[in-house]
Amino acid sequence: MKKLCLIVILIIVLTDQASKLYINSLIDEGKSIEVSRFIKLVEVWNSGISFGMFSTLPYNGLFFSAFSTLIVSVLAYLVYKSNDKLTCLGFSLMIGGAIGNVVDRIYWGAVYDFIYFHIGNWCWPAFNLADLYIACGMFTLLYKWYIYDRLISK
Fold first, then answer.
1. How many CB atoms are located within 10 Å of the residue 55 CB?
2. Which position among 16, 28, 104, 113 bears the catalytic label?
3. Which runs of consecutive H residues, i.e. helices, occur in the chain?
4. 34-41 CB contacts, 8 Å cutoff, 24+ apart
5. Is 41 helix (H, G, I), strand (E, B) or coil?
6. Choosing from 16, 84, 104, 131, which is the catalytic residue?
7. Helix or strand or coil: residue 46?
8. What are residue 122's DSSP bridge partners?
9. pLDDT per position in the chain (154 positions), as tens?
10. What's the half-sphere exposure (Cβ side, CA atoms, 13 Å) at 127?
11. Residues with Cβ within 8 Å of residue 21, at least 6 apart in sequence
12. Is 131 a catalytic residue?
């Protein structure tokens, strides 16, 4: 099962990085591509954390990369200790997404976000596949811990 987790992490990092390189090659600076009425592909460089917070901190790239690496290490340890498939999947999704964003910080100096979701005047800050993988990992763990485990224990 641990080998499967490594394969999942590798696939996540590769698909995230491939998507960023591909979209970056499509979009001219300051332009966007409309995918649907509520999704656009845009180019946003995020040097902070979620939603660009703390982007003005000195040495933020180094700090956020080191912090993300620490989180990845803790999550990898939890995968190593777990024997539950859903828990391992959730942590693997989060690890792969975090590694994808750390690669951006190392390679480009900022995280490349490109998916812009909006409905009418309401919009969500731009994000990328790594962010989606992290969110899916969190939802997987929440499902496992708060729904699945309670159904099984009855």
1. 15
2. 113
3. 2-26, 60-81, 85-108, 129-143, 149-153
4. 38/117, 38/118, 38/119, 39/115, 39/116, 39/117, 39/118, 40/116, 40/118, 41/114, 41/115, 41/116
5. strand
6. 131
7. strand
8. 119
9. 778 999 999 999 999 999 999 999 999 888 899 999 999 999 998 876 665 544 555 555 566 677 788 988 999 999 999 989 999 999 999 999 999 999 998 898 889 999 999 998 898 889 999 999 999 999 999 999 887 777 776 6
10. 17
11. none
12. yes
Give the span between the Cα atoms of 104 and 114, in whole angstroms: 13
Half-sphere exposure of 150 (CA within 13 A, CB side): 5
Q: How many residues does the chain have?
A: 154
Q: Identify residue 20 by its one-letter amino acid code.
A: K
Give the three-state DSSP class for 143. Answer: helix
